[in-house]
Amino acid sequence: MRRAWLLILIAAGGCVDLKAAYPDRRYYTIESERPGAGRPGAPGSVLRVRRFSASKMCDGSEFVRRTGEAVYESDFYNVLFMAPAQQIGEQTQRWLSAATLYGHVVGTGSSIPETHTLEGNLVALHGDYRKPQAPMAVIEIQFMLVRVATDPPVALVQKTYRKEVPLSSGEPAALVQGWSEGLSRILAALEEDLTRAP
Q1: Section 29-45 average pLDDT
Q2: I need a surface site. Which of 10, 92, 121, 161 has the fewest CB within 10 A?
């Protein structure tokens, strides 16, 4: 009799929907659109936006939350649709294409020879929740503009940009909105610095 009850319990356990016990993963994208008209450009110049790299702290797609001075947590259920460095590299290329500072802005797959290259390294991308009443989206990127049309190539701009954007709430969607706003501010500052480059 005990054996029969055991078999019934095992069969009942097999009917439990384990998937329903866990929330689905949600996917997000970081987006940044340049407002306004473009600037007067340099005809004949070609800027190649190289594939961006990322530090080990932000090379994964899962959201990262900072909850203490040296405490970071990853969020399995809220993730970026593609690798963050790839998303930010594509957004940078789109922004600079709209800015029209260069005759052409191309990616790594183009066969057009470039006069300049832009390298980027994503240093930080996380939510700072050390103060739960005042969470912030943190984004930090290193850029280097290189003129490769000369021999030897010359670094014209080398700078790190960091933005901390206050969030309206602690929800994941608010964090992504904060990252997008921070990226827009960074790209606007980068554009200004590129206009002053020789």
Answers
A1: 90
A2: 10
Taking the C-alpha atoms of residue 30 and residue 87, their distance in angstroms, rounded to an integer, is 7
Amino acid at 14: G
Q: How do the domains of the chain map onto residue ranges?
A: 26-195
Of 187, 80, 178, 176, the residue nearest 134 (C-alpha): 178
The predicted model scores a pTM of 0.87
Which residues are registered as beta bridge partners of 118? 49, 145
> What is the fold, at CATH topology level, of the domain defined by 26-195?
Rossmann fold (3.40.50)
Residue with tokens 């670094």: 155
Residue type, 151: D
Of 70, 188, 87, 86, nearest to 128 by C-alpha is 70
